[in-house]
Design the sequence.
């Protein structure tokens, strides 16, 4: 048998170089947390009772679910091990870049990327790198890039992936999904706020007067204006494209596709941080802050009471729905935790601690997408 304990000339040097590459790649893909954080997770044990009142169908038994919720909090995971929705992916932003998280908990860092967003079926990302807009695969392979003067921000894919809207300085621009036909749509837009209407190339955005404009990007002269005093910071369409949800600092308006307003939700002195439509468009979750406390609220999109699902001290920075609509994921950033709240069946609440150890500085949830 040949001996392998005598290296050939240059083997040790090559091995050192290879190890350096492998080590760096491993550290970018999977981070192992160094400590366990048991801070406010015990508070979440009581959330089940509130969730049950908010979203459980009449007659649904919840006692076993509450026991599961408490048991889950006592055994909160010190790191993200998996996603409760199989064959799905999370997108997370941190100071280091964008992270793509697979359903088995494995993850990849796309270093230096910001403002990342999923394509309609999760096959690609649009993200900003320096002064370039790039379309890339979740493994980091870049398909195309384009540079523009002024800060590029907030790209969004159309429903079919054939268009991407983005802001370059004060200008709202549109580019084809293959990186061609880049053009300015308007300079009369407030940067950062836009949303594509499903099954069309109509784009909703906010003009400088604070009103909502809905414009067909392929026929720019065709547009509608919805006047509102909300000053929306976020726009979302229901999946059928019939309703537009506009989220402001102190209220949420639900509008018909070209107006008028169908519903208004006001919070008074409370501040709305963000909102999220369920995949079927029937439910709306939003985060409200008041006097140092944050709460996750839920209501029907068109009607129904608004109920508190969970509250805690500090900052809830985002909430996203699972692709199947069975769970919501709450980003409790000030506690360095995520809470997977199984909102429809109220089976349990899964807490994950040490998020910053997993994803680096200032991690924030971006989106939970399809396979």
Sequence:
């Amino acid at each position: 048998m040949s001996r392998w304990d005598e290296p050939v000339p240059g083997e040790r040097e090559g091995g050192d170089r290879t190890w350096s590459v492998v080590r760096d790649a491993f550290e970018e893909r999977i981070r192992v947390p160094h400590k366990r954080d048991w801070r406010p997770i015990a508070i979440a044990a009581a959330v089940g009772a509130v969730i049950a009142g908010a979203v459980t169908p009449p007659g649904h038994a919840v006692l076993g679910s509450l026991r599961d919720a408490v048991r889950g909090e006592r055994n909160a995971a010190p790191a993200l091990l998996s996603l409760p929705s199989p064959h799905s992916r999370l997108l997370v932003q941190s100071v280091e870049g964008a992270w793509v998280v697979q359903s088995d908990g494995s993850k990849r860092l796309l270093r230096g990327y910001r403002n990342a967003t999923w394509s309609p079926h999760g096959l690609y990302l649009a993200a900003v790198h320096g002064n370039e807009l790039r379309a890339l695969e979740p493994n980091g392979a870049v398909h195309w890039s384009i540079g523009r003067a002024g800060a590029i921000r907030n790209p969004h894919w159309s429903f079919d992936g054939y268009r991407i809207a983005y802001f370059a300085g004060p200008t709202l621009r549109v580019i084809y999904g293959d990186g061609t036909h880049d053009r300015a749509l308007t300079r009369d837009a407030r940067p950062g706020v836009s949303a594509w209407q499903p099954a069309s190339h109509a784009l909703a955005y906010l003009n400088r007067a604070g009103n909502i404009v809905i414009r067909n990007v392929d026929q720019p002269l065709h547009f509608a204006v919805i006047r509102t005093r909300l000053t929306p910071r976020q726009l979302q369409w229901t999946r059928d494209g019939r309703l537009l949800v506009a989220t402001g600092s102190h209220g949420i308006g639900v509008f018909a596709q070209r107006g008028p307003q169908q519903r208004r939700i006001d919070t008074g002195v409370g501040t709305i941080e963000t909102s999220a439509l369920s995949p079927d468009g029937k439910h709306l979750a939003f985060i409200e802050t008041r006097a140092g406390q944050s709460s996750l609220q839920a209501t029907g999109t068109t009607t129904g009471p608004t109920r508190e699902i969970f509250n805690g001290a500090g900052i809830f920075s985002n909430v996203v729905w699972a692709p199947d609509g069975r769970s919501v994921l709450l980003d409790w950033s000030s506690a360095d935790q995520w809470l997977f709240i199984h909102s429809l069946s109220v089976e349990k609440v899964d807490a994950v601690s040490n998020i910053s150890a997993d994803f680096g500085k200032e991690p924030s949830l971006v989106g939970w997408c399809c396979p």
